[in-house]
Amino acid sequence: MFFIFSNMTNTSRNIVPPIGRFIDPLTDFGFKKIFGSEPNKDLLIAFLNELFKGNKVVKDLVYNPQENSGPARYYRKTIFDLTCTGADGETFIIEMQRAEQQFFIDRAVFYTAGKLYEQGPKGKKDWDYRLKEVYLIAVMDFNFNGTLPGKYLHRVRLAEKETGQTFYNKLGFIFLELPNFNIGEKDIKTDLERWLYVLRNMSKFQKIPVILHKRIFQKLFHISEVANLKKEEYMLYERALMDKWDAYAVKKTAREKLAKAMEEGIAKAMEKGMEKGIEKGIEKGIEKGIEKGIEKGAAQKSYEVVKKLLSAGRFTITEIADFAGVSENFVRNAKKKR
Q1: pLDDT tens digit sequence for 280-331
Q2: How far is CA 326 from the centre of its chain?
């Protein structure tokens, strides 16, 4: 099984960011529009096969429900961006992660390993512990701490330390640090580099670059034309862009406040020998505030989108959940509150 996780006005300059010709694949809507539907699964298969580089060949995929239960009933349910089952029963988790998270790797290992746990039989049944493969593919719009410049691809597996030989091949991770992908159009040589170039830059394109005139990329650009979106899709895309801009604005404001606070307090902190403690305390407090604010704002925006779609009266609960990127229970609760 494989796992894939209204324009906004700039408050400082009163400028509305433009919506380009092609959708931004690094928004929730854009990512799922490109990779998350049955008619377009050939795009996801092609992308995964480039990532696995022959070590794993993905022949076919079946999309699974997005809601995932933890290995114990008291764990909070999580929503992955995409979860798919391969032709041989493998699980693929594909997740697009925009915001930096302090324990992102811990979270990735916890939920991915949980997919191994879920394979155990329920009730009293004989079982020999034979497991199907589980992979996490994380597309990240931020960097790990300490990553070398230009290092954008991490393929992670359990291996024997001294020899590097694979110890266990049924649990794997692929992390993509998109901010570190800085290969220009003229220097691109492989299809994997083409995919990453598209993910990083597609929303800025006004025409299809020559290096992307392959059939698979032609299809990608066709379904990504903003002009081809239905009215409801356009509204959802606009909301997704707003979420992305909001997150950027919050992060930028927090950084600016942190810088100002450090400037004002640095002299006093140095006198008292507390410079390190103040810097850490300010950063930790601001980061906690950002996380809580983003989570609360995202939930409210999702609720507003669901209300609009419910009011239209033309969509099922399943369709609304898929459009808005929320669980069906979320839609039902929103319906009760109307």
Answers
A1: 766 776 677 666 666 666 677 777 777 777 777 777 888 777 777 778 888 7
A2: 14
pLDDT tens profile 175-223: 999 999 999 999 999 999 999 999 999 989 999 999 998 999 999 999 8
State whether the Cα torsion 172-177-180-186 is positive or negative: positive
* Residue 167, token pair as written in the block: 């110890």
* Cβ–Cβ < 8 Å for 68, 4: no
* Tokens 């509204």, located at residue: 235
Q: What is the pTM assigned to this prediction?
A: 0.65
